[in-house]
Amino acid sequence: MCGGCMNRKLIKQRSEYKWLVEKTGKMNVEGIIYASEPLIAEMDDKVVEQIRNVAALPGIVAASYAMPDAHWGYGFCIGGVGAFDSDKGGIISAGGVGFDIACGVRTLHTGLKISDIDSCKTDIADRLFRRIPAGVGSTGKVKLSSQRLDEVLEGGAVWAVENGFGIQDDLRFIESGGRIPGAEPSKVSKEAKKRQEEEMGTLGSGNHYLEIQKVVEIYDAKTAAAFGIELDDIKISIHCGSRGLGHQIGTDYLKQMTIAAKNAGLELPERELACAPLDSPVGRSYLGAMRSGINCALANRQILTHLVREVFAEILPQAHIRLLYDVSHNTCQQEEHTVEGKRKSVFVHRKGATRAYGPGRPDLPEEYKAIGQPVLIGGTMGTSSYILVGTEQSEGLSLSSSCHGAGRQMSRTAATKQWNGKEVAGKLQHQGILIRSASMRGLAEEAPGAYKDVSEVVEVSHCTGLATKVAKLLPIVCVKG
Amino acid sequence: MWEHFHHLADIGIRGIDNSLKGAFEYAAVALMAVICDPQSVRPDIPVEIQCDAPDMEILLADWINALIYEMDVRKMLFSKFRVQIDGSTLRAVAYGEKTDTDRHSTAVEVKAATYMELKVARNEKGLWIAQCVVDV
User: Which of A71, A239, A404, A462 is flagged as catalytic?
Assistant: First the structure.
């Protein structure tokens, strides 16, 4: 509905891809949007309003950022980045992370080429669809009591590997080594834990997917070689998050923070901006619960990887499935950044934005230290995904952040009016993309035409230096909920 | 009656009725219509729900979130709702059955009720509306 709504008086163009939201009124810092002219034209005024609202929150440092795929969200815009300093009364916001805590993308190497899987593509698609629990009401095979779940929430992917879901080497290629410290399962409600009892190792629905992809273009040969990417390689990407547990943590703390803000007399322009000082009981509790949600998501993607390995072992035993990288795009993480000329530890909210560390960061695996972090950008089931790399300048540009995906351009209701799931699947099959989904209506809602062109978003990230292009991948099999 | 309203990334749910409780009941049907075809869900199994909130709008979000929670942990879908609102307390019974993906034409899970476009008020015709955007 909203293409072309941006009121140009609200922003000032500073370069081809950088737009400034001037610091006025209650804003503590300025706002910065990275976008091309066509992307700005499609953005809603609400994005600017949300950038301004975030800029007015206590303790924000640097700037209130919007990535090229930004669109109207809840409190923070989707594609919003904001860092807060606890020494300056900085806050943490449940709305600034979102309901799907640590939703993210994991990409796997297979050691296979396109020619290796051509003849068994249908068989793999069918087996993956049978093995990977996906869609409304699906349950995983790993059933956990609340007590066992606490171990997952503290251990993340490390717990998963220790319990037979994967190998030690997988952990090096996951953000924070597969386990974020500081998780406090005691701050997660019993309802959140109950929701997760049967949902470990499930994909979810909506825009979540598991894809087999082929590498169709290499843009940066040196980095591609360091990441282990060659033309015609087969890769696997998993897009999902922390499932019911993360959704419930978001729900619980949004309410708590809203009530706490009201009681403290804090006027919030939007309820979803509800937040609490990092140095407060609610702030600390949310941080411990949210980190538990991150570990839940990391364990979930690790279990799904194990299921993928089982399927490939059955029909393509020569496959060697290893991690390329695993990165989340809905988080708040404590990171070191240069703020006002000094190195500082700050809490960076990324809501629909991907961390994009440049070279030299200690968090990166040895193989990538001299190169930078892989930035994994998902497309739609009919369009390409991209692998980018973090740059040295991205820290100064956006606190080492980049875009996260395509973003919708059409509502679900409009998409179901325009397309029918069977036709969408048939058309994609004609293009060589096998779709396996539990829901035909879900397929119509997720039709590629309902999303913006991810290539434009990636191009802006590349041209501004938020993260630069390494390779392009096209789906050949897509499992959806 | 119920309806969906436009939101680009997600979807808005709205219940409209001449009573407050009726608007809450229809908002629940609107929620179900995001997830599945509510007419295909048999109202066989009752599930009791109670919520308390500091104001009517948060009470609506809590009601929708309570339904999302019950669906998730019971792997059920609902189609019929009986709501009572007494001050800041909601007591309800949701009727439904176990999820059957094929028969219920399921589309997508709902993660949560957001506070976006969250509104409980009378419209210009004097009817109660109860609405919010849900995250899918």
Answer: A404
